[in-house]
């Protein structure tokens, strides 16, 4: 990999860009080994470029059909890599550490140790977007690892990304509710956030002659703007796009930035441009995700306004748009299920959308496949139970709800817990198994006293045998 802290030369950047483009061509022909080689070369020449890492990891996962485990006999194959990692870490040779970890990820792109080694090297070289990407990958297998969550939260705080840092500390608090230091840490971050905001606001008025721009100033082009490099990340990226109109990378970064700012429509348009320039499937899918997020935000806002105004016609229009959104989601997810046949998350999402349209015959096989993924099993079994209920197969529904309860953590999945027990209570009530129904409704009320009509139903069972 490139030297530890020196930025890549213009020549290296050009080589990286061409290698990445060759990788896209190889990937389109499903030549995964060549694609991985080209993406790896791109990441070697420009190690701080997030897009190259994303493309590399995507190709590696496709090579193994998204199996979540990588190559066979990986333990033996990774032994030499782990030796290189240990040696590089001992010498603080971050470029060597990065290179060794990436070699390991060619064997198992989901490996926690390898992803964290990439993160260590990236942090040391101040490639923070790559570091976050690598830690995210490690967390996918270790969602309740307090040490890993704490590391990520601290990194985000250091980068002054206070909101996502607070979200992570909230997760940590759920996992370690008795730790008094967490509340202090969250208060500290809130304070840092306010100080940063106050400093930014004060900075806008530090020049004695600077005044707030009027509408006339803006219309005349006289309002102050961030014209200089480094003054504003969004302006810098737009300037880079003007200089390099054929390079998709600045557009990808700009789209991500706009999305974080809540400018969903503009983010989607920008990511679409990047996808068209690159021909990269992963970028196209990110565009689709942004486009769907924008459509969902519009539908939610429309429904909220209709309910506030108590306008039935407006609400009907919102529901029609929601149905169109579901149809679009199904179209996209169907295509993804074909492109990523081993990705159970896609199958689960597609199954739940089909279930929402009561297309149970198509939903059930997808949800059954999704139950094989431990991360999705409880959600998938509950959805599967609902599908069997709609299909009139009550014994099969009862089995799925009962199996789901064995996997559900009531602390983290209270709504799922209540949904399961409520459904089992209804099934028991229908079968005149009143004591069983009472037990299930009591479980619901023990977690959420206002859940649906569980309280009324439990009261109504008081006179039954």
TrEMBL record:
- Source domain of life is Bacteria
Cross-referenced Pfam families, in alphabetical order? TPR_16 (PF13432)
Gene Ontology biological process terms from the UniProt entry? cell division
Give the span(s) annotated as Disordered: 1-22, 197-252
Which keywords has UniProt assigned to this entry? Coiled coil
Q: Which residues form a coiled coil?
A: 292-319
- Renumbered to this chain, the Basic and acidic residues biased-composition regions fall at 7-17, 235-252
- Its name, as the record gives it, is Tetratricopeptide repeat protein
The species this protein was found in: Alienimonas californiensis
